[in-house]
UniProtKB/TrEMBL annotation, chain A:
Membrane topology: Peripheral membrane protein
Family: Belongs to the ABC transporter superfamily.
GO BP terms in the entry: peptide transport
Span of the signal peptide: none
Main location, first listed in the record: membrane
Protein name: Oligopeptide transport system ATP-binding protein
Keyword match Transport: yes
UniProtKB/TrEMBL annotation, chain B:
InterPro entries for the chain: AAA+_ATPase, ABC_transp_ATP-bind, ABC_transporter-like_ATP-bd, ABC_transporter-like_CS, Oligopep_ABC_C, P-loop_NTPase
UniProt keywords, alphabetically: ATP-binding, Nucleotide-binding, Transport
Pfam families tied to this protein: ABC_tran (PF00005), oligo_HPY (PF08352)
Family to which this protein belongs: Belongs to the ABC transporter superfamily.
Listed GO MF terms: ATP binding; ATP hydrolysis activity
Segments forming domain ABC transporter: 6-259
Protein's recorded name: Oligopeptide transport system ATP-binding protein
GO biological process terms on file: peptide transport; transmembrane transport
Amino acid sequence: MSATDDSTGGSPESRLLEVEDLHVEFRTREATANVLNGVGYHVDAGETLAVLGESGSGKSVTAQTVMGILDTPPGFVTKGAIRYRGEELLSATEDRRRGLRGENMAMIFQDALSALNPVYTVGFQIAEQFRFRRGMSRKDAMAKAGEMLDMVKIPNAKQRVKEFPHQFSGGMRQRAMIAMSLALDPDLLIADEPTTALDVTVQAQIMDLLDELRRERGMGLILITHDLGVVAEVADRIAVMYAGRVVEESDAESLYKRPAHPYTEGLMESIPRLDQKGEHLASIKGLPPNLANIPEGCPFHPRCHRATDECRRKVPELLELRPGRYSACHFAEELISSE
Amino acid sequence: MSEPILQVRDLVKHFPVQQGIVFKKTIGHVRAVDGVSFDLNRGETLGIVGESGCGKSTLAQVLMRLEQPTSGSALFEGVDMFGKKSASQLRQLRRDMQIVLQDPYTSLNPRKTVGDIVGEPFEIHPEVAPKGDRQRRVQELLDIVGLNPEHVRRYPHQFSGGQRQRIGIARALALKPKVIVCDEPVSALDVSIQAQVMNLLGDLQSEFGLSYIFIAHDLGVVRHLSDRVGVMYLGKMVENGTEDQIYEHPQHPYTQALLSSVPVPDPSVRDRREAIRLTGDVPSPANPPSGCRFRTRCWKAQDICAEQEPELAVRRDGGRIDLELAEGHPSACHFAERHDHVVS
């Protein structure tokens, strides 16, 4: 049983990406950390899936495995499947995967400054893809790069292509990276904390841009973030991750209205709200688990106020409670029907 | 209301920009803080918000006397903070004001045990805890901030981010200060841990009667902890008032845009909220715009904004200064206009 069943709607043709029961471990000399322990989610064309989780929940590692850019060693995929339009990726050749990257799926990162090469102009770095993948001449490719910068609303794009990353502001670098990722017109974009390093006013601009581009191009967007506010503004569906698993999956509106997992519930209560002054924030006690030594049973039980003996013994499965709503908690039914 | 514990007037900090290797020549100034005034009352929290480069951290550094101000004054309990001081006067001042820094990974010495880190203030101020008493005091402090007192011999790397921030808070509390400057104390932490640390700061304030200057870029965090809030933009305070005045009835266009940009964690208000989107980025503080510094990104800007700098004063709708206005709060805009319902 996993969240990737076809019962969630979406025809097989529109199903862009399917991750199923993915297990990844990081082997170091001292210990083996179980970073992913059966992650499953899917994205359809034209929709935004938000992957929500705190540091160490495995949200970025899942994305890196999908893109095929996981560092091995230390990371090893031990089990699971990743399908892009039905094609199994984990068993595909490296050539095939390289062919897919950029062309079909692309990724943008949190820190645009370190993701761009400081010794080449921004235009050159975007144009590279047109030259090597499309066989364009230097000049044509550069012109194309200018168009891409224009598309992401960088003012003066024609001049700006000749500038270096350090001459761009933080927001513009992130725009340049979006332009680069969309150069070959992929239909799946993974954005890994794209606005975490930016100020709120610039963050709002970038999120608007991403949303607009997704709509125009009918792309599937996986938005990886820890910010519940950003998620609420753009996500169609949400997968909440904890200790290398998806613990809840749902459409955005129902999840915020009534979370079906105590971890999600705790997260919602711990954010200080802008529209009200609270007295004491409800916080989740304790710390996220050490991935080399995940507690037995439900990995969340040491921090959960509902935990019983069953939780300490048995790992709850991710079950469908209502159409499109999944939760991995022994008390999910109680949570979802409580008022 | 009692007398303010800290009165800051026209505080300015400029950093010279130099050129040349042997013969350095000053070619300009970064105007990090450019004339900031505020009062901090006893037992209250003053939140300072703003985007990167607005000068909020420089303000913290100057208030801690880690940087000398270019000009301006600050009175701490009526005593001038920046004037010439004997070593013992300065030591007393430092005892009364402490700071909690943003990054719990770099603000703790990795080669010292937690006991040494939290106990170090007692080396400089032995009058607070006599030598034989120190171990017990340190363990007490760890207990106050919610850490296990048995862990005094551990090193910082053995703690998580949230626990390290607690160590930083214990160190700040060691000398029983009156004012704590918190410079982005929770922005490096995950949400669930952030809530724990914010609750701790709130509890400590009521227990020890502390006054906080709480600097952060997260407007939700600031609202949660602050009694009054000051909004900064490019080295200037553009608006300040009570938490309710700033969040429910902001007057300055920048405050309104800032509040409108913060995503609200509720999908049901998604398309109902008013979206004020600023274009472009914050200009460089080395070369700020003439007149009102916000005018390059402001949708209300007119000619007067480039010519005349608006002062921070209580204004009626439309921007006219009216110092007698009963429920007003100061804002620095020629066209200030009260705007309700930005956040919800």
